[in-house]
Design goal:
This protein is an alpha/beta fold. It has two domains: 158 residues, Rossmann fold; 76 residues, Putative phosphatase, domain 2 (DNA polymerase, domain 1, Orthogonal Bundle). Helix content is 45%, strand content 9%. It is built from ten helices and six strands; from the N terminus they run E-H-H-H-H-H-H-E-H-E-H-E-H-E-E-H. It has a six-stranded parallel beta sheet with strand order 3-2-1-4-5-6, sandwiched between helices. Helix 1 crosses helix 5, helix 3 packs across helix 5 and helix 5 packs parallel to helix 7. The radius of gyration is 18 Å and the shape is globular.
């Protein structure tokens, strides 16, 4: 392999998680006696704010709250987010959130080939653990050299902080690693960290701008041999000076 590590985003990249997150939020609202309801169009707009707590803050700040209610926002957000996380992880553990096509195969191929695996996500460690262990088995976390979760850095994507954090713990140079993302925010974060970035858009992100991506795929399952194809594209584009290129490329 001409690259040393694969760094995966989680929500939307490893699995189409956002619908489960949306349902978990709505269930949490009901559990806390709130009449809020995030439908799909509303949630698509809310996804422009990265991070569940940040999303709640943005939504609540848009409401006509009293000064007293605004003072209670941090406490209310924390309670709602904990309930939502409990709801989401329960759904995941029930097998309702499968991995996207090709993900498990790529992870297995990379592990067998000695390519290091890492995660750079804005979601919580609990969410990551539930998704991986449910879909890949109880030893899934051991496959990853580094797992970077959202609360481990000050600024979430599109800031590069989580990728900088993961690269520092990996001890690998950015030019020797590949990031796999599904969103424009994730792409911006990975490119700002200097990474070769592959984008696999999903339902919630398919209309976003991926002009800066080094390679765009419908899914990791669209390649017959995903690890070999990644290595080939990485080699070709690296020789072409991919770190300064902003042109989108198809498979």
């Amino acid at each position: 392999m001409r690259f040393k590590a694969l760094i995966f985003d989680v929500d939307g990249t490893l699995a189409d998680t956002e619908e489960a997150h949306r349902c978990a939020f709505n269930q949490a609202f009901r559990q806390h006696g709130l009449d809020w309801q995030w439908d799909r169009p509303a949630y698509a707009q809310l996804l422009k704010t990265t991070g569940g707590k940040e999303r709640l803050n943005a939504y609540m700040n848009s409401l006509p709250l009293t000064p007293a209610e605004r003072r209670e926002l941090p406490e209310r957000v924390a309670a709602l987010h904990k309930t939502k996380t409990d709801n989401y992880t329960r759904m995941v553990r029930q097998g309702l959130v499968p991995l996207r096509a090709g993900v498990a195969r790529l992870i297995d191929e990379a592990d067998s080939a000695g390519v290091r695996l890492a995660i750079a996500s804005t979601t919580t460690l609990g969410n990551i653990e539930a998704l991986l262990c449910t879909n890949l088995g109880p030893g899934a976390l051991d496959l990853f050299s580094v797992i970077g979760a959202g609360d481990q850095v000050a600024c979430k994507k599109p800031a590069p902080d989580i990728y900088d954090f993961v690269l520092r713990l990996l001890g690998e140079a950015e030019e020797d690693c590949i990031a796999i993302e599904d969103s424009a925010h994730g792409l911006a974060a990975a490119k700002a960290a200097g990474l070769f970035t592959v984008v696999t858009p999903g339902y919630w992100t398919r209309d976003e701008n991926f002009a800066a991506a080094d390679w765009i795929l419908p899914s990791l399952g669209s390649c017959g041999r995903p690890l070999a194809e990644l290595d080939r594209q990485f080699s070709i584009l690296r020789e072409c000076g991919w770190r300064t290129s902003t042109a989108a490329r198809g498979p």
